[in-house]
Amino acid sequence: MNRKASILYNDVIAGILTETDDGYTFTYENAYIENPESMGVSLTLPLQSEPFYEKYMFPFFDGLIPEGWLLDIAHRSWKIDVHDRMGLLLACCKDCIGMVGALPIDGDNAE
Prior knowledge:
This protein is an alpha+beta fold. It has one domain. The protein is built from four helices and five strands, in the order βββαβαααβ. The longest helix has 11 residues. It starts with a strand and ends in a 7-residue tail after the last strand.
């Protein structure tokens, strides 16, 4: 299963987060890197042209996913397994509090 999300920073597409059977990749968009005003989406994901790889969801993106009663609502409302971190990110993190959000790509959704 491959699922992708555009990662927004201050409403600008900063990069692409991809889930594959082997793990996760985050790659900044070239246009974002070339903008002198761009910043890394987190201290753990500094601006660079090389992709970042993780076996499990990047801790920074995982931290955007709701917890507690909000997670329970997402689980019940959208029938998303609480262990499906990408599904939860795609369903719940389009308009997060703060500068970063995640939008599904290619019709990806939480179902």
